[in-house]
Automatic annotation (TrEMBL):
Domain of life from the UniProt record: Eukaryota
Protein name: Glycosyltransferase 61 catalytic domain-containing protein
Location in or out of the cell: Membrane
Domain Glycosyltransferase 61 catalytic: 111-304
PANTHER family: GLYCOSYLTRANSFERASE, PROTEIN O-LINKED-MANNOSE BETA-1,4-N-ACETYLGLUCOSAMINYLTRANSFERASE 2
Topological category with respect to the lipid bilayer: Single-pass membrane protein
Source species of the chain: Owenia fusiformis
Pfam families assigned: Glyco_transf_61
Amino acid sequence: METMRHIVLLLIWMKLLPSNQCADLLHPESDVTSSHGHYPPMYCKYTHIVFKGDTGAFHYKSHRDLHKQCSFAGTDIWEFKKDPDLDIEKCTETYDQGHIFTIFYYYGSNYFHLHYDMMLPLFAEIMKTGSREGTAAFLPTVESERLKKLNWDTVAFDDDSNYWVQTVKLLLGKHDAYRPMNDKLRTPGYTICFKKAYFGSPRFEFDNRDVVRNFIKYAKQMHNITEYNIETPLVGIISRSNRRRILNEADVVKALSEIVPTVLIEFTGMTYREQVQLMQKYSVLIGMNGAGLMNALYLPKTSVAIQLVPYKAGLNFNEFGKLLKSRGPYIEWHNQHEELTVPMPGDPHRNRPDTILHIDEMKELVTEALELISKQKHNVKTEL
């Protein structure tokens, strides 16, 4: 009875307050802090912010223009509005944390950018901030252009079987919500409240072995994939179909098969889980610089990843290398033979040329990889 009396008195007191003071009680003042981001280059944390479906914007309560303190490369991918009448009681959903971020969706998305720009930085932040405690909502976003306003009409999230949707959902905890930012979110009267909301992806050191390996372990656990010892060595060569192709891949497979069983791999049509599962078979994975090679992250611990780089290519092979070295054994091969290069028209930076692989050099690479595996297994037995 005493508790009920206090509640009644509080309600009467709030009724007598001026409306602006009552609003202060209902919704706390918002604030914002920023730090260097990975993508966009600014990473912003808002407190007590509300998404409104009516406006398609994030509303905050403050006398200051908080959004001007945290600009994403001079433009706002997401829209922010100062709202003095913000009222938390009107929210449809409430979460302890929100993660609002972009996914790379150009040319049908890209497996490398999904890992590099989204999954690994966000995973590191989630582990650091403890998003697994309490509730969280994840709001993936597609830009109209790079670093331009979001595209509400995107079809990126229409099919849950697409691998980019599956990679986003991998990050969700048991009690987390998935709320893609498309036209379905712009429902009149629909609101989402966040006690804290993080915009973008944070800066991340990709040579951080602990985080990279914890992410790999987490991904396999979430997919119920068990890593097992490979008794018979198997080499996989990633086949590419559009650019940076291996033009003599059949000859390479035949030549390497004289040393160790070797097969071609095509990832087309596979789900994210199927790609991760497939990697558990290979002792050595060979791939030209490109999105498919990102699957090397999920190789067994002692397996070797080999990145092939076209002749004098202006590509992101350093980023690939840093990440794959953090995973485990890694070898990098650069084509030094201009005569084995088939350039593509309109490609001044040599980003897309096809390559005829030097057979003897490929044999040497695989022999080196198998020796690496043997040394690792010997070291493990010695430690035991």
